[in-house]
Amino acid sequence: VELVESGGGSVQAGGSLRLSCAASGYTYTRYCMGWFRQAPGKEREGVARIYRDGTTTYADSVKGRFTISKDNAKNTLYLQMNSLKSEDTAMYYCAARADIYWCPLDSDQYRTWGQGTQVTVSS
Question: What are the pLDDT digits (tens) for 51-109?
Fold first, then answer.
């Protein structure tokens, strides 16, 4: 089982990035997947999650700017990030949870993680 993120980089404030997370070894996109981020000196926080039925949850700080989506056929998770701010700078991780009943935006509830991709937003 492996999750591999890509798409991070450096962008100016107001710009956009699209993160991808390719899953292999298990069809996690059919269960529960999420994006989390961790800035230096801060705790890991939930950004967005998507449930097997496509319902989504977002952190208040990214609502209206970020969109989580998935492609079950490709077993891939996405995070479209628009109107980026300097405070969005962090390492972004995708995570998966093989649970058909509960899909929280809580990093403690996820056991499968990618290696992370860095997003840096300059003001």
Answer: 999 999 999 999 999 999 999 999 999 999 999 999 999 999 999 998 888 999 999 99
Q: 3-state SS of the chain?
A: CEEEEECCEEEECCCCEEEEEEEECCCHHHCEEEEEEECCCCCCEEEEEEECCCCEEECCCCCCCEEEEEECCCCEEEEEECCCCHHHCEEEEEEEECCCCCCCCCHHHCCEECCCEEEEEEC
Q: Assign 41 a pLDDT band (cuts: 50, 70, 90).
A: very high
Cα-trace Rg, the chain: 13
Take residue 123 and report the two structure tokens written for it: 């003001």
Tokens for 78?
A: 């996405």
Measured CA to CA, the distance from residue 55 to residue 39 in angstroms comes to 26
